[in-house]
Amino acid sequence: GAGVSQSPRYKVAKRGQDVALRCDPISGHVSLFWYQQALGQGPEFLTYFQNEAQLDKSGLPSDRFFAERPEGSVSTLKIQRTQQEDSAVYLCASSYWGARGDTQYFGPGTRLTVL
Amino acid sequence: DQQVKQNSPSLSVQEGRISILNCDYTNSMFDYFLWYKKYPAEGPTFLISISSIKDKNEDGRFTVFLNKSAKHLSLHIVPSQPGDSAVYFCAVTGNQFYFGTGTSLTVIP
Fold first, then answer.
1. Are B73 and B23 in contact (CB under 8 A)?
2. Domains along chain B?
3. Strand B62-67 relative to strand B56-59, pairing
4. pLDDT tier for residue A5 given thresholds of 50, 70 and 90
């Protein structure tokens, strides 16, 4: 079956531009996670949804970052007024329930480069 | 503040030998531990996991060992194959997932 998909795969933005990154989770998965992976680092948690409810957004680095999942399936991560330090790979993952230890299935990521 | 550490950024092993990847964590409240494998330009894929009530879990060539007193996790791959060459991340769960920085494994044919 289809896995987690993300679009675009690559995005180049000029500093100050707004960007929107899309995630299509595995159909039927209740939970959806966003991570930021800087070069040479592991994924770092940004935010977590259970259905349409954003249960944890403690990892969002600033109020320029905003995520939504209005119908409990597709999610969008929006970054306003991008800065060079936002350059990273943004990974989306989904899991069936989101319970502790529930396997997360990752998408291929969107590589964002801010010039 | 790094919750999970993988102190070896890279590891090279001869094909057929054992690969041992290590991971240390800081918080004794973490209760579930996972290993993910990542190829270039792809997202991490789940490999194997262990809960805190166990000290060993085996799946084919992959075995994860958990030493709770030392807050240490390891992944053993036996025998190593060239297709195992990838970056391996350990992850732990408390209220969130925390990932290590990864170890790049190269299996030499």
1. yes
2. 4-108 (2.60.40.10)
3. antiparallel
4. very high
- B25 CB within 8 Å of a chain A CB: no
Question: Cα(B37)–Cα(B102) distance, rounded to whole angstroms?
Answer: 9
Give pLDDT tens digits for B15-49. 999 999 999 999 888 889 999 999 988 999 999 99
Q: Is A48 on the interface with B (CB under 8 A)?
A: yes
Q: What is the pLDDT of residue A2?
A: 79
| Distances in whole angstroms, Cα of residue A65 to Cα of each of A83, A104, B22 | 11, 22, 33
Average pLDDT score over chain A = 93
Select from B63, B81, B88 the least CA-distant residue to B11: B88
Contacts of A44 in chain B (CB under 8 A): 99
**Residue A13: enclosing H or E segment and its boundaries?**
strand A10-13
**How far is the C-alpha of A70 from the C-alpha of B71, rounded, in Å?**
39
What residues contact residue A65 under an 8 Å CB cut-off, 6+ apart?
A46, A77, A78, A79, A80
Option in A41, A42, A56 nearest B96 (CB): A56
